[in-house]
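Now for today's protein:

——
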Amino acid sequence: MKRHSTAVWNGSGKEGTGYLTSQSTVLNKTQYSYKSRFEDGIGTNPEELIAAAHAGCYTMKLSFILGGAGFTPDTLETKCDISLENGEITKSEMEVTGKVPGITEEQFKQYVEEARAGCLIGHLFKCEIVANGHLA
């Protein structure tokens, strides 16, 4: 299986603009720029997309782990913060809240950590990865 996305950039790094298109077209000429990346401009940015990818992969991994242990989550919600400092991604921090019938807080935290260690997107990072979880 292969997936792809395309980036197009026009102009200089600071004054130019670009757009991103994903294979599924969920991103379809989605704007990005210096301002959307490093200031508060309109559009997306690579770090936001990395956070979404990590949160999505991690949450699905946690769901599979819970299922394997006999638990079916009603809801799992993960917020992922990507830290960019001095031109380098230094941390990916996830905060997951789960509504999982029949599970204890201790069990949930164990599976939260197991998912952190087994997340495929997380394996790509060369930064600190933190996952904290609690039940709703």
